[in-house]
Specification:
Layout: E1 13-17, E2 21-26, E3 39-44, H1 46-57, E4 60-68, H2 71-83, E5 86-93, E6 99-105, E7 111-116, E8 140-144, H3 151-166, E9 170-174, H4 185-193, E10 201-205, H5 206-213, H6 221-224, E11 230-234, E12 240-243, E13 248-251, H7 264-278, H8 286-291, H9 293-310, H10 323-331, E14 340-341
Parallel strand pairs: 1-4, 1-8, 2-6, 4-5, 8-9, 9-10, 10-11
Antiparallel strand pairs: 2-3, 6-7, 11-12, 12-13, 13-14
Helix pairs in contact: 1-7, 7-9, 9-10
């Protein structure tokens, strides 16, 4: 059951930090990049997608990142503002252009990426732009690993993470493995592993769980043992698994017509954080929240439904559903509460 929507002023703000870019999504599904010549330009970038999802659901979403002084930067800023995202900490720079990613779609809707960041504006976000006053009120901080791929934005990310922890903010992390942007898979694993102990909530795909677990273990417990309180493993069409020290459950995927899987994981994270924000979950109340099994499953069901709706539309930010759409989808009799216990 989806509970009544709260006014945004009653919710915790969620600050997403990291990349915002333009996805050029092929309109010729089933073709490889070399064979595609028609694309739709759609604003995206994982942290920006999460912020847009939360705002479109009715939450208080803020985005901190950097785009170029170019038309693509204008497009991203306009799109985020139109979605309801607070962009006061969106930086503009002439030092580099806005990042681009070309996305091709298999017949199943699965994606292949080619990134143009050499460097891009998001990689040059300066650490001195990260300010303590961002964290003056209680809130939730969300970030990924793409901002860790460059020394400059990496220093800014780690500063923001430190300030969030010092301010007792709940911290959410999506490793978002894009291995082509790293010198090696080991470099990605090292960077993601270096921040896991600072994160309360971590969302991974099954492939990312295998990477981060290493040769010894790809089970969720390998990340829980490193300080993570809630591990969310998205499994594509097979749904999602939630694991904590006391709870290990799965919900099945939804049966929908898949158009584009871009942004599905971000929609899931955004909806999950929206649910935490509306319940004002903090590090000190997280354990209490997790003991309310039925509420946790409601939140998981809501996030699962939000992700399912997103894949029925092209793009990421433009595909993020409204609260009423998710509520209607859940109420229409989805399979979200067919819970599978792993313990």
């Amino acid at each position: 059951m989806v509970r009544p929507k709260l006014h945004a002023a009653q919710m915790l703000p969620v600050l997403s930090f990291g990349e915002a870019l333009i996805d050029f999504v092929s309109l010729q599904q089933g073709r490889k990049l070399a064979d595609s010549d028609t694309f739709a330009s759609l604003p995206g970038g994982a942290p920006a997608n999460v912020a847009a999802c939360i705002a479109r659901l009715g939450g208080t979403a803020r985005f901190a990142g950097q785009v170029g002084h170019d038309g693509f930067g204008d497009r991203i800023e306009h799109t985020l503002c139109e979605a309801g995202v607070d962009t006061r900490w969106l930086q503009r720079t002439t030092a580099a252009k806005t990042a681009l990613a070309f996305v091709t779609l298999a017949d199943s809707g699965e994606r292949d990426f080619a990134f143009y960041r050499n460097p891009s504006a998001d990689m040059l976000f300066p650490a001195d732009a990260v300010q303590p006053h961002w964290f003056e009120e209680p809130g939730i901080f969300h970030f990924g690993t793409l901002s860790l791929t460059h020394e400059t934005s990496g220093a800014a990310t780690r500063k923001a993470l430190r300030l969030a922890r010092e301010a007792d903010w709940l911290v959410s992390f999506d490793p978002n493995a894009r291995l082509e942007l790293w010198p090696s898979s080991d470099a990605f694993v090292a960077a993601a592993g270096s921040v896991l102990h600072l994160c309360d909530v971590v969302k991974v795909s099954e492939e990312e769980l295998d990477l981060l677990g290493g040769a010894t273990s790809s089970s969720p417990t390998c990340l829980l043992s490193r300080g993570v309180k809630v591990l969310l493993t998205t499994r594509g069409a097979n749904g999602v698994r939630l694991t904590t020290s006391e709870l290990d459950v799965s919900l099945p995927g939804q049966t929908v017509s898949v158009v584009d899987t871009t942004g599905a994981g971000d929609a899931f994270v955004g909806a999950w954080l929206y649910e935490l924000a509306r319940r004002r979950v903090t590090p000190s109340t997280l354990a209490e929240f997790l003991r309310e099994r039925s509420i946790v499953l409601d939140c998981l069901s809501f996030a699962n439904a939000c992700a399912a709706l997103t894949v029925t539309r092209r793009g990421a930010i433009p595909a993020m559903p409204l609260f009423a759409e998710v509520r209607a989808f859940v109420g229409a009799g989805s399979r979200s509460h067919e819970v599978k216990e792993h313990r």
